[in-house]
Each structure stands twice: as structure tokens, then as C-alpha cells.
Amino acid sequence: MVRFVSNLALFDRDLLRLRQKRARALGPATFLIERVAGELGERLSAVLRTFDRAVDLGTPTDALRHALTESGKVKTIIAAEPAAMRLDNMYPRVAADEEVLPFADASLDLVVSALSLQFVNDLPGTLVQIRRALKPDGLLLAALIGGESLTELRQAFAGAESEVEGGLSPRVAPFIDLRELGALMQRAGFALPVVDSDRLTVRYDSAFALMHDLRAMGATNVLSERRRKPLRRATLFRMAEIYARRFADPDGRLRASFDIAWLSGWAPHESQQKPLEPGSAAQRLADVLGTKEYSAGEKPGGAA
């Protein structure tokens, strides 16, 4: 189980930005972010209202901004990201980090984020900041990588390092347990929180092709406790052999799993639905079921 602690820097975020910048320079792999952005836009389209001011928090490309524009649900979209990530001038932008938001309380109608929040060191703290920045009845809609994502690569590296080097080192980032996200949303003060997930399985010719795509996403190892020594060639090739042996389909292609967690929640507002108070039911359950109600300790037929 993954725990997020505010004083623990699980991720080296300076290195993350450098690798994202390198990925853009070399030509990014965008199939995953484009798929997520498209679905997030569809989810927003199902919301029966429009939003005056939205912030796209940390999404590494403009794909989500384009999806929001096409939805017709948002009047103004602001990209919040480090200055080094700026791609063009199509959208208003503000230099910001997901861990320290510069927005005033109750200043935003909508916050969205795609495939960014999984690299935040203090996710509960970020969620609290987002909720505070939202106006009453404002919406958070986000997607992040979680669950058992890249479990195949994790297992293959663990097996290879155990055999070749006699020990393990952190190679694949731990992702938050999907069951914890609902509790985090409630702790952050969101009303009507909803968390769901889906698994995307991508197939590759080899483990090296998967690693190439991860590099082109800027998503290679940025753990603070990563091993600083270069990966040994023998370990790398043994990892590829284990991966091919354990995770190949009948046609020889290899599976790579991505669990996408979807979050939505509203800043509290008096107009929102609220659970009924205990004892406020207008009709007894026994009447609905057409049966007789017995008091505690009483048995059917009148026997004590």
C-alpha cells in the first residue's frame, strides 16, 4: 500500500521536468495522453452545466486543452505548468507547480488534470489546495496512473536484478492504490466524490519498445531513491528475457498494463444533494417489503 507523506520526497520533480523536456525535444509518445484527454472531455460533456474559468493542472501536452475546447463547456482555459513546459501561445498560461498552487481561494470554476498527479509527492495536500481554489460548486475532474500499472515491467526488473546483481533497486514508481483515492478525496473536503478506473493494455514487440515509449513520455525512473549507477547491460537483457517469457501473448507480442484512475469531486455548496439524517425515512422497510416487523429479541410466531 502506497502512503503519501508531505515531508517525504518520493519523486525527484526537477529530474521529472528535465525528462519531460527531453521527451518533447525528441518527439513525444502521445497515444496515452490523447486517449485520456479524449475521454476526460467526454466525461465533462456529460456534466449539465458550463464553466467560466478552468485550469488545466500539469497535463504534459495541450491534448486536454483541445478536448475541453471541443466540448464547448468551458469559456476560458488556463494552462498551469512550469515555464519550461510551455509549448505555444494558444492558451493563457501561468507558471505553477502541482504541489504549490498560486490560485486564490474560491477563484476557479473547474480544475482538470491528465496523467500528472501520479508524480506529486503530497497528493492529499494538492487535493486540498485544489478544493480551496474552487468556487463553491466548482468541479475537479482528473485522471492519473495508479493501481498495478506497469506490473509486468516491475516484475521483470525484480527477477533480473535478483539473478544478475543479487538484490533489488527501485526501477518502477509505486502507484497509489485505487481504493485509497476515494478516502483522499473525502479527506480533502470534496463533496460527492467519485472514483473509478479502467485498465488499458498496450502490446509491444519487445520490452525495449515499451521502455522507448516510456522515455518518449518523460516517464522513466524519477524516484528520489533510484540507483545512481548506470543499468548493467546484463541486467537489462535478462529483464527483457524474463518479460518475454512471462508476459507474451500467443502471437509473441508483450503486454504492458496501465491502470487509469478517474477522480471527480465538487467543492461543497448548499444546493448539492446531501444524505438523509438517520431516522428520517418516511416509510418503514417492513411495509415496503410486505412483511411483519419484529422488535429486537422477538422471534417470529411470538416466541421469546
Q: Can you offer a commentary on this structure?
A:
The model is unreliable at 1-6 (pLDDT under 50). This protein has one domain: Vaccinia Virus protein VP39 (Rossmann fold). The protein is globular, with a radius of gyration of 24 Å. The protein contains nine helices and seven strands, in the order ααβαβββαβααβααβα. 32% of the residues are buried. A seven-stranded mixed β-sheet has the order 3-2-1-4-5-7-6, sandwiched between helices. With 304 residues, it is α/β, with parallel strands linked by helices.
Could you name the key traits of this structure?
304 residues; Rossmann fold; alpha/beta; 7-stranded mixed sheet; 21% strand; disordered N terminus; globular
